[in-house]
Structure formats: structure tokens, C-alpha cells
From TrEMBL:
Residues 21-67 form the HNH endonuclease domain. CDD domains: HNHc. GO terms for molecular function: endonuclease activity. Residues 103-127 are annotated as: Disordered. InterPro entries: HNH_5, HNH_nuc, NA-targeting_endonuclease. This is HNH endonuclease. Keywords: Endonuclease, Hydrolase, Nuclease. The keyword Magnesium does not apply. It comes from Pseudonocardia endophytica. The keyword Nuclease applies. Pfam families: HNH_5.
Amino acid sequence: MRRPGRAERLDSVLARDGDTCVWCGRTLGGRVAATTEHLIPKVRGGPAWVENEVAACRRCNGGRGHRGAVDWLEECERRGWDPDVARVARVLDLLADAIADRGGQRRARPQLDAQRRRMARRGTEAA
Ligand SMILES: [Zn+2]
């Protein structure tokens, strides 16, 4: 099966999640350049799958660096931005489902589990 390229994955992610930056909520397009980034970073074994990608503006993508998704989410909140917590939780779940289906990704699994546990704890505290 042919793997979709970066531009194609960006289109899929925008169609799935809408055209806003997951971290700051700004509408992407025009002067706010749209990028995709990996919730589980590649350096931590995250796969280049749409199930591991979210749309972010270039500023947020660059600002995050290799920080974990939940660390960066909480940094965005401290900065007074409006990160899409539900979207992050949803895409982490999508990735877990995709890994369960396809197997492999041994390096990404513990990272993903840790991120999902932190999201679950946040949910409990907010309720
Ligand atoms: Zn942003």
C-alpha cells in the first residue's frame, strides 16, 4: 500500500480535526502556516501515521520541540492559550487503536501509555 506524503497527511488531519491549531486554537491558513506534528515525537519512536499527527501552527510546532504532548499542553495552558484537550485525548486514543490493529511500535507504546494515563488523570481532576 502506498504511504501518503506529508501534504496529503496534513489534508487528512485538517479534514478529521478542523482547521485550527491544536495548541493555541488559531485558525490555520493564510499567515498562520499549517504544519503537522507528532503527538508521540519521532525521536521517541512515534510513527509517521495520521493517527499520530495533529495540525499545529508553525509557532506552536517549533515552540514545543521534543517535549511530550501533555507537558506541552500544560505549558500552553500556563501561557493562557486555549489548547484543544479533547482533540489531544481523541488522537492519542486513535493512535492506541491503530497500534493495536497493526502491531509493532514497541518504542512508542510506553510513551503513548504514559501520555494517555496523564490525560485520564486530568479528566478525573477536572470532573
Ligand atoms: Zn498554535
